[in-house]
């Protein structure tokens, strides 16, 4: 061994000496040629011992020397790039790890863009495209008996993963395509697959191998946020390879297991995202969650509770993975318990963003679908407790989406947990969300391969309505066709039948007083209904008569109950009340606002009061408000064409008049819109101040600051609307001041709906109160509000709140911009 | 089809003066080519008015039901004889020939119900009468004018269809056997073979009592209305089995009467919603909604020349002329009327009688 060693050392030292000093092309060539003997795979090779000695000790030094000699003149010593070719072959054929390290080292060491740097970069690109990276990784995998020093491995790892960054920094604009991360990492994935193939082959051949270097590369790439590129290449291949082979499965599990802890999360999220379904995930991961604490934490806590941006299929494959193996199923039960607890927790409902609540709800439903009867029964009490708490606090919420989630989950969960009991059924409108959620709750058919199952399910679901409509459509079209066919020979043209509407039997009262009487004392329900339907029009037509009984009428309407099922009762009552308020604003508004804080009203009635006040204020403040015709029922059919006929004859008559009339003035005969006083101006105070005064005084039956937060939210919205409608009025400043104070006291309210109301109220203050007065009278409030807005825009859990806050901030900015030009000159 | 539909039609004219709700209408005379018929109306106050459609006046009043509502009027094919059924449980036979207005015969009804009777002419002098019988679910068949009770049609014990609500006797052209269609309280329509006294077929058309129906024996198709919100069209196949073809949804519930025009083109319904609806008989396509009355329409009737009359609780009778019968070359609705017709003759006699009485 010794003589071989010294012989190699001698040769190499001589060669290096020659190379570093000699300018003669022929000698350089022959020296390089002689050194090539030591590379594996060269013709007439040196002894294996010598080769090993060369690779182990001298190769790096030689490469460094070669890099050092690199210059245009040196390469030009012989024509046709013979030197360059020979030079490059050392890098491409020699031991890959050393070549790679020297390459990277020289590239990093280069001062700036230069000939050498470009040459090296091109060589590196060749190195990559020649598949030498696989050799680098393979080499690390084989060194089981004498592993490279951890430090060296660490360096290699950093260089392998950091290659795009390094090259990008060095080459700046001259970077090559191969080094761009979006190209490099898929390539790295491919190379890793090749390395894995080699590992598997050598394992089959009985050689020991370790995949830990590969794991580290994978982990590091994932930590750098390149999961998509890497796993996009690896996962489909591995999915296919692990299908039939235990060896591949074990290699794959090992690969995932050896990933360092800090990379586990990045890798797992990537894997769960890319893997097509729970079975694939299970094949790729094995029982990782049971072996690795970190993995368990990521899979059962982090992905479920802390993050919520992932898609539903991903959630399904994650939970499905937990469900596929009996060892992992306890984890699923555990997860369900945790999920239900979070789902039901009062503070989570209040503080978690809606998207997260939706995510957790979906996870709960998926868990329920995956778990079996027995498992659910075992922990039924615990689950039911958190479910009940959750349903209660969800139904309490003032946000419809939160309530809806509560209803859906409660229905499904109670059906699963309590199958023997009567089914729980809420009334909610079906929409996209509810359909999606309910689809999740349906247990998935036990499909062999989710790859096939999931696409099969989706198109089927999508097609069903289509095919159904086709089925239903054809005979119908046929029927109609045949019908019209028969008709054609008959020439019986139908008359206009649009007047054919539902008949109301009893005659509508013609006087407001009759209505009041009918509504209060009538036992004749048709008369009662007719009175209710006629009331709005009557009030608008006879304001004087309505004014005489306005407060009484408001009282009657406010207490009116829907004793019979009248279609559109709420709307009728509301419109009638609005008409009454508009007819006689001051006393009626005074009455209604006083009733808002009175005892013995239902929340519904209180909210009705708010709605009516808002609508009436809107009506009063409408510019150019003429005594308008009664609104027709918005749900009802379009106005009968009889009314459409009228304009036709009117047009004809007007045309005739125009033709026969001679005008002496030029220009259009159009009149400008007549300016009229804002009728809301004089009565805004009656609407606003009584409402804002008493909100902090709880009654026995009504506690705005307590649990009746829904009404508080509505109140905030109403006050905002009233403020907005009071634009250009004299009381606006006082109102704005009061409103800002109101907002200030409630600004940290825990209910998102209330906060939204407050934010919109702030916006309407900014819109309605003149800018000068705002700054002159309310500077402190404004500053405080501003900081609060900034805080909300930054941190609020509710997305709408953040948006509203940003809008208000923009208004504030605009206000400042408007004032500054005034102040600056 | 025109871009904008025709505006809803107005009545051709209106007959006022019954001074109580109109419950029965019947066109008298005026068969094809014979000019203007007379219109008979029966009112809630028990009077039968005879209207001239030319002068639009009542030419005579018959008082034979002691102030009780007249529910059915029908003229017999031979002579000037009129049958009227009243809520005083009497069926009167009037002789109206030559200005007379006397009750020549009367018969006691056994049923307190609202069911109208029906008549089938059999030969020149004989006719068959079907009327509600003594038992609440029975129909009695009499041979007239002898008033011999031929049979009583009683549904099987387990059928329980309730009271008969409307009846129609008819005879298929192919066979001489009289058949009876009956609408029952439970919403079903049954076909009776009178000679065998058994139900050939029964079909549930409605969920509410059948209030009126009409049958087109040529097409073997009938239409029925009930208290509910739909019309039912049913048909009779060769095996004499009834089956519902389709139902037609209405805007408002309640149909008091249904009539198919003699030319089988259109049909009219009398609605509780004060409206008369006109449909294309073959397709059941809605053609018109006649809204003129301000109270329930109780009855509709078609004249042979296509005139439509509707009698209502608002004491008025509206006369409409829609979709004139095309095969008729002369326009019977506005045309000149000859003097030699049945109705006209009757009218003349009436005028004479009145003048002579005045003298």
UniProtKB/TrEMBL annotation, chain A:
Keywords attached to this entry: Cytoplasm
Chief location of this protein within or outside the cell: cytoplasm
Domain TELO2 ARM repeat: 324-422
Region (Disordered): 444-491, 623-645
Telomere length regulation protein conserved domain ranges (all copies): 509-617
InterPro entries: ARM-type_fold, TEL2_C_sf, TEL2_Regulation, TELO2_ARM, Telomere_length_regulation_dom
Location in the cell: Cytoplasm
Pfam families, alphabetized: TELO2_ARM, Telomere_reg-2
Domain of life of the organism encoding this protein: Eukaryota
Protein family per UniProt: Belongs to the TEL2 family.
Name of this protein: Telomere length regulation protein TEL2 homolog
Organism: Felis catus (Cat)
Lineage: Eukaryota, Metazoa, Chordata, Craniata, Vertebrata
UniProtKB/TrEMBL annotation, chain B:
WD repeats (start-end): 203-244, 290-322
Database matches in SMART domains: WD40
SUPFAM superfamilies assigned to the protein according to its UniProt record, in alphabetical order: WD40 repeat-like
UniProtKB keywords: Repeat, WD repeat
Domain of life of the native organism: Eukaryota
InterPro entries: WD40/YVTN_repeat-like_dom_sf, WD40_repeat_dom_sf, WD40_rpt
Pfam families for the chain: WD40 (PF00400)
Name the UniProt record assigns to this protein: G protein subunit beta 1 like
